[in-house]
Prior knowledge:
Elements: H1 9-32, E1 35-49, E2 54-59, E3 63-68, E4 74-81, H2 90-99, E5 107-114, E6 125-135, E7 138-150, E8 155-165, E9 175-176, E10 179-180, E11 184-195
Antiparallel strand pairs: 1-2, 1-3, 1-11, 3-4, 4-5, 5-6, 6-7, 7-8, 8-11, 9-10
Amino acid sequence: MKRSILxxxxxxxxxxxxxxxxxxxxxxxxxARPLLLALDKGEISYTVVHKLHQVTGTTRKVEGLVRLQPxxxxxxxxxxxxxxxxxxxxxxxxxxxxxxxxxxxxxxEVKGTLPPxxxxxxxxxxxxxxxxxxxNGIQHKQAIPVHLEPSGPRAxxxxxxxxxxxxxxxxxxxxxxxxxxxxxxxxxxxxxxxVRE
Length: 197
């Protein structure tokens, strides 16, 4: 004849300990699984300089993913359609799309790896991403400084800024009064990633 667990006081006393162990094990298993974060909102901009003025083009039509892998590098991808950058001057924007061969290469993209990141962040972190930038159909490796800030237990805000050479990406630099814009452009972003449910 079988006895009920309630009739065994020693087993009943161990039940809270067993339950706590099961919960802790489940929490550790959840922490050990990779997490996928999707870009929730943000913007990317480029800034170029001419002797007479500075121009910034910005887009908020940004998409991206981050894969957090316990004990392994964090994988990052952020991209934006070239046609969505707005500098406040439609002629200048049309020329930018022409110079980057936008019909053939419609997306500007940054992807790479960061050192391992764990959520929730305990505070701000400054890391360097081993990245690859693709623009005008050309890819270049780039070390990209990234500043991370916590944004709740399941989200992270990332800010980055880095220079590129327009000549290296074979982008014909526009002229104003027979003077070309500088070869150096600065790419910057401020994006929020949240755990994909």
